[in-house]
């Protein structure tokens, strides 16, 4: 009569390591051209976990830039809250990340909503690194209303805004909808582009 061992049903490390090597080799095709360790890590992270990781990245950027910030949870309106010391105002920040579509290489930022935050940060997971841009949410949504449909249903209601593999949107026409994320541009976004 056979007796069950304590580890019955568990996958041993040898099998796991072989499977991991096979997966990594297969997945390497999807990462063709990716040179940044940060981008490779983000590409290998699941989409919902990747979204949360982006929130932590932007939170850490804000702290490093000298802002008093706190990170929210998924049940709150904004992802991050920033205390602006000039007037004690609390600013909510929504973070949106996008990976390039495997075939078209287009980045699409989903679920941008006018009343969800004061500031929206979009994060491109590019082959050569992670790039963040910032915009005033109200102004972004006012612009998006002219070119995109507001999606009411589904996992991410709001505007979906596409960008080419070069980070361009055909409807910007020279307007700066988002600027590269710097401290100066973050303050610019808070003030509604004034």
Q: How does this structure look, described?
A:
The protein is of the alpha+beta class. It has a single domain, classed as 3-Layer(aba) Sandwich (Trna Endonuclease, Chain: A, domain 1), CATH 3.40.1350.10. The chain is built from five helices and eight strands, in the order H-H-H-E-E-E-E-E-E-H-E-E-H. The strands form two sheets. Strands 1-2-3-5-6-8 form a six-stranded mixed β-sheet. Strands 4-7 form a two-stranded antiparallel sheet. The longest helix has 18 residues, at about 45-65. It is globular, with a radius of gyration of 20 Å. The relative contact order is 0.12. The mean pLDDT is about 85.
Task: Give the structure's gist in a few sentences.
This protein is of the alpha+beta class and 194 residues long.
How many domains would you count in the coordinates?
1
Q: What global shape is seen?
A: globular
The side-by-side strand order for the widest beta sheet comes to 1-2-3-5-6-8
Number of helical elements? 5
Order of secondary-structure elements: HHHEEEEEEHEEH
Category by helix and strand content: alpha+beta
Properties at a glance:
194 residues, alpha+beta, Trna Endonuclease, Chain: A, domain 1, two-stranded antiparallel ribbon
Task: Give a topology summary.
Blueprint: H1 13-28, H2 37-44, H3 47-64, E1 68-71, E2 80-83, E3 90-98, E4 107-112, E5 119-126, E6 129-136, H4 137-147, E7 159-163, E8 179-180, H5 183-190
